[in-house]
Design brief:
Layout (H helix, E strand, L loop, with lengths): L6 E13 L2 E14 L4 H20 L1 H18 L7 E13 L2 E11 L6 E10 L4 E2 L12 H16 L11 H8 L5 E3 L3 E5 L14 E5 L13
Parallel strand pairs: 2-3
Antiparallel strand pairs: 1-2, 3-4, 4-5, 5-6, 7-8, 8-9
Protein name: DUF3298 and DUF4163 domain-containing protein
Organism: Variimorphobacter saccharofermentans
InterPro entries: DUF3298, PdaC, PdaC/RsiV-like_sf
C-alpha cells in the first residue's frame, strides 16, 4: 500500500544579475514545500528547513559567485576575452514518497568559468512516523557490516559496467570507492537504496554522478514500512 503520500509544491528563487549593464550571472534555486494532513507539524519544520537552506545559499554562495563574476568580467574586458556568464542552479528530486518515508536529493550546479561547471549532490531521507532523518545504518539489520557489503556490491556493479572495455571509471576505482564512500550519500527509490558518489570521486567528469541501486531484500536493505 502506497499510503501516507506527501503533496509536494515547488518553490523557486531566481534572478539575472547585472554588472555595468551586462548580465554576468544568473541563478535558479528550487526547493520543495510539503503538505500533509497527517504530518503537518513535521512538514512545517521541513518547509522551514529547506526554505532556510535556499535563502542561505542565495545570500552566501550566490553572492560569492557574483563577486567572482565581476572580477572575471573586468579581467576578460581588459584582455579582450569573451565574457562568460556565471551560473548557479539547484534542483531537487523526490525519489520515494510512500510507506511513511520521504526521500529526496538536491543537485547543486555552479559554473564559474572554465571548461564546465561542477555539480554536487546531497540528500535526505525522513521517517515521517518518528519525525526524524534516518541514517543508512537504520535500513540494515543491527550489528551487520553493511558498509563492507555495500562497497563490495558497488565494485561488483562497476565490474559489470566495465565489461567489453567500456571504461567509465578510474583504473583504481576499488580503492577510490573504499576511500570516498560516505554513509550520508544515499536516498531511497522503489527499487532499493541508491548509493552515489560525487563527480571525480571514482570516475571522470563525463560519467556524471555515479549511482548504484542496492535492491531491498534478504542480505540487503530493508524495505521501508510504516511503524506504529
Amino acid at each position: 500500500m502506497d499510503g501516507y503520500q506527501i503533496i509536494v509544491r515547488e518553490k523557486v528563487l531566481q534572478q539575472d544579475m547585472y554588472y555595468k549593464n551586462n548580465n554576468i550571472m544568473k541563478y535558479t534555486i528550487k526547493y520543495p514545500k510539503f503538505i500533509s494532513n497527517d504530518y503537518q507539524i513535521l512538514m512545517n519544520k521541513l518547509n522551514t528547513f529547506y526554505r532556510t537552506k535556499a535563502l542561505m545559499y542565495e545570500r552566501s554562495n550566490v553572492m560569492n559567485l557574483y563577486q567572482m563574476a565581476m572580477v572575471e568580467y573586468e579581467y576578460s574586458v581588459a584582455n579582450h576575452y569573451p565574457i562568460r556568464q556565471f551560473e548557479a542552479y539547484i534542483d531537487y528530486f523526490i525519489t520515494y514518497n510512500q510507506n511513511c518515508y520521504l526521500s529526496l536529493y538536491f543537485d547543486q550546479y555552479e559554473y564559474a568559468g572554465g571548461a564546465h561547471g561542477l555539480t554536487i549532490r546531497y540528500s535526505d531521507t525522513w521517517d515521517l512516523k518518528k519525525s526524524k532523518r534516518i541514517d543508512l545504518a537504520d535500513l540494515f539489520p543491527p550489528n551487520t557490516n553493511y558498509k563492507s557489503s555495500i562497497i563490495q556490491e558497488v565494485n561488483n556493479q562497476i565490474e559489470l559496467e566495465m565489461e567489453g572495455d567500456n571504461k567509465m571509471y578510474f583504473d583504481e576505482y576499488q580503492r577510490l570507492v573504499r576511500e570516498n564512500f560516505k554513509s550520508n550519500q544515499f536516498y531511497l527509490s522503489k527499487e532499493g537504496v541508491v548509493i552515489y558518489f560525487q563527480q571525480y570521486d571514482i570516475a571522470p567528469y563525463s560519467s556524471g554522478i555515479p549511482t548504484f541501486v542496492l535492491p531491498y531484500g534478504p542480505g540487503g536493505a530493508m524495505l521501508p514500512r510504516c511503524t506504529e
